[in-house]
Design a protein that fits this description.
Number of strands: 12
Shape: elongated
Strand order of the largest sheet: 2-1-3-4-5-11
Strand content: 15-25%
Distance between the termini: 99 Å
Largest sheet: 6 strands, parallel
CATH class of the largest domain: Alpha Beta
Structural class: alpha/beta
Helix content: 40-55%
CATH superfamily of the largest domain: Response regulator
């Protein structure tokens, strides 16, 4: 090999090594690989209910504050859909999963798969009731005491007498707690109020409307309806209006959504035990951060509800009175 060829080869070798080092240490502008996003997945019962949208938005804001991106999806009351969403979170290797289960027992399989993948699961608003499914922490309203408050409001409105019905949604744990609290308060108060009908309304206004109409048809002497959420309460209001019984039947709801509060302002719903979804969303993510940092967190965190009446609605700056 000539001296000239040796020099040329040496120059090429040095250039190649330099390019290799530069590729590893300092990529050209615009060519730097993005760091993998830190993700949290959340699947809620439905996005058709403002309550769950509030949970998502506040969870997203809190996650961003800690440098995490929130992937939000909705099961829309369908447990198999939610199961597939959890499987997708696992594929995406999220750091944690938040669930408001579509079915408190049926969600167990999805949670077990997340457990097997080493991804911590947290529930918000609705708890898991499945055996063998590990949930790190459950953050929710105190639905049981909220149910007791609903019964107190009903006793007050009816003068502690009469017949009432419940529009239920027994597939989810939060509602089970609400109806249990309602029944227990009547029992403990030795109230003569009689629960004459309990029917499932699906948690949606369009599904609860025919249920409310059936109740009114079969119980013409009904005095009150306890509806387990605002969409169900608004369905009861609509059924009462259709039956031309406005002012004759007391409706107690649950939630404190804007539409529910407006109905309270208008005197169509007597009262709501109101929840604070903003607190639930933020507190859930705060609990996740503590867990990921190695801190021990409570298995359950309950946020108190409070009764909201027309007098509260009249002072509520979020509502605009009709002239």
């Amino acid at each position: 090999m000539t001296r000239t060829m040796t020099v040329v080869l040496a120059v090429i070798l040095v250039a190649a090594l330099a390019a290799g080092c530069r590729g590893k240490q300092e990529a050209a502008p615009g060519e730097q690989e993005k760091q993998p996003a830190r993700l949290i997945g959340i699947s809620v019962l439905t996005m058709g209910n403002p309550f769950f949208v509030d949970i998502i938005e506040n969870a997203r804001a809190e996650a961003a504050r800690h440098g995490y991106e929130l992937i939000a999806v909705s099961g829309e009351f369908d447990a198999p859909t939610q199961y597939q969403q959890v499987k997708d979170f696992i594929v995406k290797k999220v750091s944690a999963i938040i669930l408001t289960p579509c079915d408190s027992k049926g969600v167990g399989t999805a949670i077990q798969e997340a457990n097997a993948a080493g991804i911590p699961v947290f529930t918000a608003d609705i708890a898991c009731l499945a055996d063998g499914a590990k949930v790190v922490s459950h953050v929710a309203s105190n639905n049981y005491t909220g149910g007791r408050l609903a019964a107190k409001a009903m006793m007050e409105a009816l003068g502690n007498k009469g017949k009432v019905a419940i529009i239920d949604h027994p597939e989810v744990e939060s509602v089970i707690q609400r109806t249990k609290g309602f029944r227990d308060e009547l029992k403990d108060a030795k109230s003569p109020i009689e629960i004459v009908k309990v029917l499932a309304g699906g948690g949606k206004k369009e599904k609860a409307l025919p249920v409310a109409q059936e109740i009114l048809t079969t119980h013409g002497d009904l005095n009150g309806i306890f509806a387990i959420n605002d969409p169900s309460a608004l369905a009861a209001v609509a059924a009462i209006e259709i039956a031309r019984k406005t002012g004759q039947i007391v409706v107690i709801g649950f939630d404190g959504q804007p539409e529910g509060k407006k109905a309270i302002l208008e005197g169509k719903i007597h009262a709501d035990p109101i929840q604070f979804p903003d607190q639930i969303g933020r507190k859930t993510v705060q609990t996740i951060m503590k867990h990921l940092n190695g801190e021990k967190v409570p298995a359950e965190i309950l946020i108190p509800t409070r009764l909201y009446y027309k007098a509260d609605a009249e002072k509520d700056p979020s509502l605009t009175k009709s002239e």
